[in-house]
Amino acid sequence: MQRLDGRAANQIRPVSFELGIAPHANGSVLVSMGNTRVICGVMIDDGVPRWMKEQGVIGGWLTAEYSMLPYSTLTRKPRDISKGRLDGRSSEIQRLIGRSLRAVVDLEKLGARTMYVDCDVLQADGGTRTAAITGASLAVAIACRKLVDDKKLATLPIRSLVAAVSAGVLGGTPVLDLNYEEDKAVTVDFNLVATEEGEFVELQGSGEEATFSQEQLAEMLAIGRKGIAQLVEAQRAVLSQDALSALTPNSLQPKLG
Q1: What are 49-64's pLDDT values in tens digits?
Q2: Global pTM value
Q3: Residue 62's beta-bridge partner residues?
Q4: Which DSSP category does 85 fall into?
Q5: What is the CATH number of the domain that holds 160?
Q6: Contacts of 151 by beta carbon, 8 Å cutoff, 6+ apart
Q7: Which helix (H) or strand (E) holds 160?
């Protein structure tokens, strides 16, 4: 199948990561997937939420926030604060980001600290939630490395990298990594989040006034796994260049294929 941007059905958009985009953050990344660009920043504070203290929960906490900047879309998107509430979509996405990252961070090893992950969409062209998760995973890894560099932790509190990608059924064909025009046109919308070991964190799939077959589901899973493997490879390349690999346990070496 030939797509509007010339990609094959199972091909992701060009991906890149720019580290240190926010100098005051403990870790930050500008992730670009095609024309979608998301700034992911991490800050770490000492202390944990009150509910953890009250319930005697050991370790730390990780929480995420997600927003689309007003100029990230073709028409201005008002800030949530101007409406006095967080919209349902943003709330759903930031919970997904938090769940995805908590699945791969050892919160007990993090200690009594709170890790705040902020994902701000600079330019939206489909797949903002998946780009946010993929970029935030890098930002968290860099922030955790800083804890080790500063001798606040002996080892990295990270079990694995995590990445995410979208898929869908377009004209009857499963396709990978949807841009905005494709996202509007698909009859099935699917998002996959997985660790580099190939273990799924979350799958989100629904028909858009349509249904999908078991065969189409299997193909979306297959191309999704391939896409995540490529994203992990790109993450690993950046971390290797940034010397993080010297501090990374063997369990974090690439395994997804």
Answers
A1: 999 999 999 999 999 9
A2: 0.92
A3: 115
A4: S
A5: 3.30.230.70
A6: none
A7: none
